[in-house]
Amino acid sequence: MGVILQIALDFKELERAVSIAEASKDGADWIEAGTPLIKSVGMDCVRELRKKFPDKKIVADLKIADVGDVETEMAAKSGADIVTVLATSSDCTIRNCVKTAKNYGCEVMADTIGFKGIEKRSKELEKLGVDYIAVHTPIDDQMLNKDSFDGIMKVAKSVHIPVAACGGLSEATIPKAVKSGASIVIVGNAITKSKNPGKAAAAVKAATKKTSSDVKQKSVLEILKQVSTSNVSDAMHRSGEMMGLKPVYFEKKIVGKAVTVKCYPGDWSKTVQAIDSAEKGDIIVIDEHGSHIAVWGGLASRSAKNKGIAAVVIDGGIRDVDEINKLQFPSFARHVTPTAGEPKGMGEINVSVRCGNIFVSPGDYIVIDESGIVVIPKNRALEIANRALYIKEKEDRITKEIDDGKTLGKVLNLKGWDKLSYS
After folding, report:
1. pTM of the full predicted structure?
2. What's the CATH number of domain 4-215, 3.40.190.10, 3.30.70.790, 3.20.20.70, 3.90.220.20?
3. Alpha carbon distance 176, 400 (integer Å)
4. pLDDT tens, 266-284?
């Protein structure tokens, strides 16, 4: 058979899970009832998958932590061929899983998620009788571009049972997982969020036979150019938006790093000097304390555009709107006014500022599109960018389902998740 492809159905809605499984069944060897799915609808999902796909191995991703005999029996009787138990569970729990699984003709996969020192634990798990070990990179770690390839290699060299790779795998990274020693690859999002799950599953399956892959991590800027401010806001739990600033000139999406300016009302000396401090693609962010006096105008815009600066964002005043529009220089401000101040030089460049009721530090990432302006702290930029992309890909899948004729409420099963009232 070669390397086994296990498709993880991490949905809350059973109908959606079955639909995706049906679309991708030709590429899948094993089909997994994901943990969210089991928590949402219980063992019914295992029964349904068993009925729909009698020729596939069905994995119940229970991530058992206790009462291993009870949960293993539930899954096995429902039609699961494999159940998962956490490697962090006690030896007693794991032994109970293994014993019960053997009684019901089932197998056990130990999931190492959250476990440190997995090489030593893997040897213990093999002695306890588990059939497979899954080396699992948590989603939160994936957002930081962490992977489990070193862990897979260590475990594969330590045990004589099959090792599964799990967490963030894609067509591009699977060859590396296989080269590291994985004989099972567990793939979710790369298939289930695709607009064409069948094609994606076929591509992933083909990748298991490749010997090498040129995996290049995208930069934060590259990722942010793929997502919207709405995606970013969702990734930041509906925060990060600059409030109260209006576009003076705006044409298309802008992404860049912040060069910050703090100035006194009407004092435009440091705002102009910031042009010299900025690099091509940067966004100048000015804290003028909401003043109505302009600290930026046509000449500054011309100078900034000639240097390749991406935009200026001002919590204060701007003027020369007609010239700025002719220059087509992206500009945002709280106030438009013909009144300019004077260059007194009392401000600061590249210090923490407050703009649009959001604190901005030098080097923070700014994303601007038709929906608004969001600020991403530089120390969380990689994580937030990856989370935003994760959200976008999920929405792309939902878009496809809506285009296929479902309503949004049906896709998300909102009625089924209404808050119950007990009064």
Report:
1. 0.77
2. 3.20.20.70
3. 30
4. 999 999 999 999 999 999 9
